[in-house]
Amino acid sequence: MPTTLDCLVMRNVFGSDRMRQVFDSRNMIQSWFETWACLAEAQADVGMIPAEAAAEIRAATRRDDYDAEEIGRKIATGRHFLMPSINALTAASGESGRYVHWGATTQDITDTGMMLQIRQAMAIVEPAAEEITAIVARLAARYRDQPMAGRTHWQHAVPMTFGFKLAQWVDELERHRERLARARADVLVAELGGAGGTLASLGDKADPVLDAFCRRIGLAKPGVAWHGSRDRLAALVNELGMLAAMLEKICLEVGRLSSAEIGELHEPRNKGQVGSSTMPQKHNPILCERSAAGCRLVRGMVPVMQSLMIGVHERDMASVAAEWLLIPQCFIVLDGSLQYTHTILSGLQVFPARMDANLGITRGGIAAEAVMFGLAQQLGRTEAHDLMVEVAREAMEQRRDLGEVLSEHPTAREVLSAEEIARLVDPTNHLGLSQRIVDRVLADRDARSGQA
Amino acid sequence: MPTTLDCLVMRNVFGSDRMRQVFDSRNMIQSWFETWACLAEAQADVGMIPAEAAAEIRAATRRDDYDAEEIGRKIATGRHFLMPSINALTAASGESGRYVHWGATTQDITDTGMMLQIRQAMAIVEPAAEEITAIVARLAARYRDQPMAGRTHWQHAVPMTFGFKLAQWVDELERHRERLARARADVLVAELGGAGGTLASLGDKADPVLDAFCRRIGLAKPGVAWHGSRDRLAALVNELGMLAAMLEKICLEVGRLSSAEIGELHEPRNKGQVGSSTMPQKHNPILCERSAAGCRLVRGMVPVMQSLMIGVHERDMASVAAEWLLIPQCFIVLDGSLQYTHTILSGLQVFPARMDANLGITRGGIAAEAVMFGLAQQLGRTEAHDLMVEVAREAMEQRRDLGEVLSEHPTAREVLSAEEIARLVDPTNHLGLSQRIVDRVLADRDARSGQA
Amino acid sequence: MPTTLDCLVMRNVFGSDRMRQVFDSRNMIQSWFETWACLAEAQADVGMIPAEAAAEIRAATRRDDYDAEEIGRKIATGRHFLMPSINALTAASGESGRYVHWGATTQDITDTGMMLQIRQAMAIVEPAAEEITAIVARLAARYRDQPMAGRTHWQHAVPMTFGFKLAQWVDELERHRERLARARADVLVAELGGAGGTLASLGDKADPVLDAFCRRIGLAKPGVAWHGSRDRLAALVNELGMLAAMLEKICLEVGRLSSAEIGELHEPRNKGQVGSSTMPQKHNPILCERSAAGCRLVRGMVPVMQSLMIGVHERDMASVAAEWLLIPQCFIVLDGSLQYTHTILSGLQVFPARMDANLGITRGGIAAEAVMFGLAQQLGRTEAHDLMVEVAREAMEQRRDLGEVLSEHPTAREVLSAEEIARLVDPTNHLGLSQRIVDRVLADRDARSGQA
Amino acid sequence: MPTTLDCLVMRNVFGSDRMRQVFDSRNMIQSWFETWACLAEAQADVGMIPAEAAAEIRAATRRDDYDAEEIGRKIATGRHFLMPSINALTAASGESGRYVHWGATTQDITDTGMMLQIRQAMAIVEPAAEEITAIVARLAARYRDQPMAGRTHWQHAVPMTFGFKLAQWVDELERHRERLARARADVLVAELGGAGGTLASLGDKADPVLDAFCRRIGLAKPGVAWHGSRDRLAALVNELGMLAAMLEKICLEVGRLSSAEIGELHEPRNKGQVGSSTMPQKHNPILCERSAAGCRLVRGMVPVMQSLMIGVHERDMASVAAEWLLIPQCFIVLDGSLQYTHTILSGLQVFPARMDANLGITRGGIAAEAVMFGLAQQLGRTEAHDLMVEVAREAMEQRRDLGEVLSEHPTAREVLSAEEIARLVDPTNHLGLSQRIVDRVLADRDARSGQA
Known about the structure:
4 copies of one chain form a homotetramer. Chain A has 18 helices and 4 strands. Chain A has helices at 17-22, 25-45, 51-63, 68-78, 83-92, 106-142, 162-187, 206-217, 231-257, 286-307, 317-346, 352-359, 368-379, 381-397, 402-408, 410-415, 418-425, 434-451; strands spanning 147-152, 155-161, 265-266, 349-350. In chain A, a hairpin with a 2-residue loop joins strand 1 (147-152) and strand 2. Chains B and C meet through strand 1, strand 2, helix 7, helix 9 and helix 10 of B and strand 1, strand 2, helix 7, helix 9 and helix 10 of C.
């Protein structure tokens, strides 16, 4: 029976099926076959091997009737990770089998094959991140003007709009997308170096073979083989971890704002969903929690991948081999969180009435900064601050409205009229640039899309 | 097709089948069934539910004909992790199904079930660690007297014996085993608290039910439910990470000492083993590398698990859920490294001749400390040190034997005879307590085993 | 001007002065001096060096007039970490200076010296952890009966008491203390091995010198030198990280429960404290935040220390040297968080009225589990659960009290009387074993203290 | 007495004085003063405050006679991180003091101030990284043709040149520099948002003030305040960690290749340097070790910083405050490793004779791949591989030269002449593209510099 990410139970908590397919046994082996086919074709291109041989190898990679289970068994007994696949393709290629893996080293194939998988994986991750950004952007537009308490240090700070909160997410998500795109562009590099990276095994034609190989497989040409230089992979995994941290922030905030006391948001509820096995009233933000749990696991891999950069000598499988588990896990688990976040945001329940109501629970306190700045015009910042500390404390201790207490304060009354006080203590008069910033962030995003 | 730890390719690099079985879908579900059966029996013990109901539930958990795939599918659609299993057992229990999961909360079952799996997992890990220790101890006895260069800062420092190096590993391995045993004893605690940990759902009989439940399931009774206190799990995972670090140290040292230049050790070679796909002369210490790669992945989970201790309020699935992937991964990958290390050490190739030869490559330099202490008896530490710095530098620069250069140094000749110099520069005269420490460490180990 | 932990600004956010003293330059050097004095005395004990020499060296370590700045400068130019201190003590010891550092290697002194500092540090940490536990225990007793909403998944789950929440902390804190005590007992081991750990430099008298040294310095005798076995330190740092995680959980929970919407707790407020530079109404739980920030930094060192276990060959300063920064930082920052947590808890503001009020905000929903179990007595668990899902949803959608809606449900009315419904929907009737568990946890703690 | 990074002892192991200055107490406070001055000037620019007030505030920031110690003391008592500095500047600004900190929130000042420090820090890090790259590039050119064993899996793999190894470092270093430059460009953004990021406190003139502020302080304008969006900082710290990993790889490799058995490289030795306190022959690669130890500490901060991205609500000091220690530490420790690496590489001792000699220790085995490819031309890859496995094993077991054994093998003799065999087994005939790749990497670097 399957375990961990394939476990019949756990696969419904972590990961996504679409990403599992990218990193399953068959696609892994297939990505090696594709690499060998392109290598043979490149070698045929420069006349190193017969064109018919390349064609026969290519045909063999398409037969797709190799026995993945059998390959697995032979890996177990022979201790060599790639040999059983080399042998399978060699056998399937008939006479031309002798040209399979010509001049390559194991890591040329596994690294290039992994790049093909990463290309597919990024073709899932990047659109998923873009879709999430688009959803948040639409929400930001919709709730551009919806007032809400801005909270810092867990306390009410100043009023803002819900759109403004969302615009901050859009702004950050755009940066994650940009960094991801850069990391993807940087990482998609072919690997072909032979045993020591010097391409000695390809003789005089090494350079043209490398050129043709990169062209055929559609990956960038490396300045030098990267058997021992894993920085691009570390940079990529770091960006996956960064995106995970962003999703975690979003999902935890949605969960937090869905608490009984705040109640401003909630993840969408399924018809058939069971909230709790024993508490029928509960609607747990379970998608938020699962998503965040996945993100934590993804982030945990970032320092491991970074440590793998520090290999011994020219190549070191004590480092590189760990990538074979780490990279698939990272992508599979992250994509689960991407899908959860998509579901959460696309069906997000927003309760404007609660946002409005919560703005009032400090009885005007949330407007204290604004009042202070109003007073400071007349009194200077320090005196205004001290006055407001006094008034705010009194209001809190007596559980009275800030405006009321303020109206009774002699200095305040000297410099402010009753109308001014009323205007000042109304939170919705202190949204600042909330809306304008929403507009700007969305315009920036549109401009960027227009460019792209 | 399977992925990551189940992948047909990767499963031959990471993990072990025996540990996969502990954490596979069926055993996970079975551990929940066992928990429900014990709960029902405990409730019957105190007269809370009919004894027949408990018997019927127990029988249902033995039928073992539930459809794990179907349970998986329902988890996907219903969003609840446990409900489909509850329903499966309820259905299988006929009339008594109404008593399934009585008074329990989801986490009572998943936590207790996980403890049952951890108990099985530790029954693999601890004997495996003991076997490795036993092998190292036997090697330490065998190579008690084999001289070898002690290396610090990558440089030859002073002579020692290979047995002494191994005795250090034994000494440390014993501590890892002791800490693991403690962590295991601490962690194997039942969970039964109901929704908030207060056992409100069990009414007046809560306490006796808890007692009976713990007795029946064979786990310690918690002082208080640990839905939100994951420290014992974090302590356990930390010890798994510590053991991984130890295995990593051993495997990397074996690999390092098998380098072309040192050549003192080598992991065992298979008959059919292919060293390299292109370099026929190579015998890569591939088991060492795979083992170390696995250890790095295990260590990477330690800080993640520690971060999961910091949950929100009484319970927090954004923390707890991550354990469901992390714990199985940790055990499965670690056991792979345990098995590799076992294979490496039980068939370890030792090359005494190379150890002897390497002792000579510094041309007496490795004995310089001993010579210095010999001189210091007469000259004091500082003067002796300065003299030896001079002599050692000259010997190195002129590529001559230390003894030779020393014999020509006037001060040295004043205080040391030719025989004394000859004796002093022979590395095998400076093994210190190497052998005695081997004896002591092995005696300590025996004493401890005798006690246990 | 000072930086980081000594920075005039930052030192008021992170760390404590009492712990800075343990790890400052002078105490570090003094701990080496103490080690050298004990070594000389041990050597005099066994007749290896003259008793007068040991006495002179001991006297020199007491003069305390060495120039720490000058030692620092010489470390910079000579590249050797310890030589300037050896030279300072040698010079201060007159004729007997020749016996300073006799037969020892650098790491013997730095490791043993660090143990002396760790002994002092733990004499701060452990009582601090005990004091915090005692405060929480007192609070648990005081609020044993104060009802409060139990929250899981950020949602109200079931009622409990505030004392019950605190008892869970006591229970976990006791485990942290126990693990810390074990780790401290394990780690306080002397180091004396000479260059390769074989004690070759001490000749025949190596063993008695080691015995006498350990006795004089008051540290346990190592089975074998631990120059390359850093597991005990890693175990200690892990426990510091575990304690940090616990403090972080407590501080974040206090902060969270002090939010405007919940308002059940607050850290103590200073008279002169400025809440915010611009928001006069704010009373930020700034101690909670600083404490948690420190805890995060401490936890970040755990995996680093664990990685340092994996040294190269017999000794490896690329690993060991990192401890020299990591261990002091860990202790200094942790002690800051211990002090913050002490302040927070010893002056904790508790608002029982808010706890009572919050219990009602789900309009009976928080009692839904209890109602369900009441119904289940008659209807079975499944039917009761389905009924309650329906009733709870209706109550929520119509913003009505659960009891009201329940009273109108035909099935419910069949099996429950109006009084039974009224009793069932009152949260304070569903505290379960909250109070009894408080009593048990506190009794367990008392029993343990009695024993100790 | 100072501790940790300022400790008189430790400061000579970790960090650099030039970077300590960037992050010392005075420069931290000064960076806040600069921020306030620019803010006042920006507000004067748009007519929000009198030009004279801005001038007076600016003048006050230049007086530089504030008492940093006193500010520190007041932070301790008042619990507010910034207020004492605000008050100091306010007092120093006379009448205009009332305009200090106008409309700003604490984090506006601390974040912007930190950007000024990071700008200075990066002006040290980036040139240091460039200098190291330049040194490696010069070494690569010098040793372009020096043959050397390429080592994989700790074993000799194929021949290459030392220049080729260095070229790989250049290639990777260039990528680190590029990523650092990007991260720096991304991160240097001003912060000005007021309490909730909405700039409500600046009223109608918020936007023009923000524009003027960014222009005056020379930092980019944020799309939206980043009080709660720390991704740019996390991206920067990650790049610092990446660079640390690169330095660690270089330093560990230099140390490794300086081992007694390999002896191909050594870090420069000081005249007055003491190798070991007891082993006069030793020349420990202590700079390599210290540098690597520092790098590990830097890498340890990467996941912590990434976790700080996940703040609560709009702002969360439990996250942000940790940066105040983490960022300075990261830069200070990293710069120590940069300086060590610079010293190591600029004075690197290279021993070509040892490189030549080591190429021979496998008795032709290192050329086995080349021989196999020679044979494969005639026999096909599989048959050639099998033949070479046999020949290589025989050569190793009998400790004979590969060429000799090969000459006696009937199949080999059939397809290869004695001259061909002699040519094939000479490692220096199999350098592959080593030299051409050195040329290409250096040309790429030149081209990039030309562009820049």
